[in-house]
TrEMBL record:
Domain N-acetyltransferase, first and last residues per copy: 33-190
Pfam families: Acetyltransf_3 (PF13302)
GO molecular function: protein N-terminal-serine acetyltransferase activity; protein-N-terminal-alanine acetyltransferase activity
Source organism (scientific name): Aerococcus agrisoli
Listed name of the protein: N-acetyltransferase
PROSITE patterns recorded: GNAT
InterPro entries assigned: Acyl_CoA_acyltransferase, GNAT_dom, Ribosomal_N-acetyltransferase
Record bears the keyword Transmembrane: no
Keywords assigned by UniProt, alphabetized: Transferase
Amino acid sequence: MRVNEFNQPIGDYLENDQPGALPSFESIVGASVTLEKVAPKHHDDAYDMYVNQIDDASFTYMFIEPIRDSATFESYFEMLVHSKDPYYVAIIDNDSQKMVGVFSFMRIDPKNRVIEMGGVLYSPELRKSKKATEAQYLMMQHVFEDLGYRRYEWKCDSLNEPSRNAALRLGFTFEGTFRQAIIYKHRTRDTNWFSIIDGEWPAKKARLAKWLDEGNFDADGQQIQSLSAF
């Protein structure tokens, strides 16, 4: 343990204390999905996804209500395109070339090199799929290897069991619950916090890469071993 001249314990010295980079990319290409900054070209796919495909229940733990009319969508889509924090990213299916989901980098803190994954919304075809896992993997890789961040966060309503399970499955560590942290939709929210830090990333990366490997899937695209097995 390091101590200062007053014999007080202090944190480890950082060789690199320079700020991280802000998210800014056109595309990140994976084996099954491509990530693209939400742009006007995604308009029609996004409309179909938000208005026609995603059911009301999927919005329960989102900060927005279901979008069911053109005027509301147009306003919301403009925000998706122009917002810098959150920085919204479209998930493109490499087979269909259609937008099948959206998520974002948010609470972006370059100085402390901390960034959060949030605003996750998947179309029915993307949910619980290999493509969804690869999309999350590509975002993690970008955070640690391209942007140079030290800490990657995931937060959710403590009652949102699917989000909690997704965070743990992807390798995030549960850190605790912030009680009465947020008021949204006229209700209170206790927020669960999860994280991955840079020193953990190589092992987390190897685990995800093994699961995503084509050899872990049969001819019908079904996993041979679950991610929890790695």
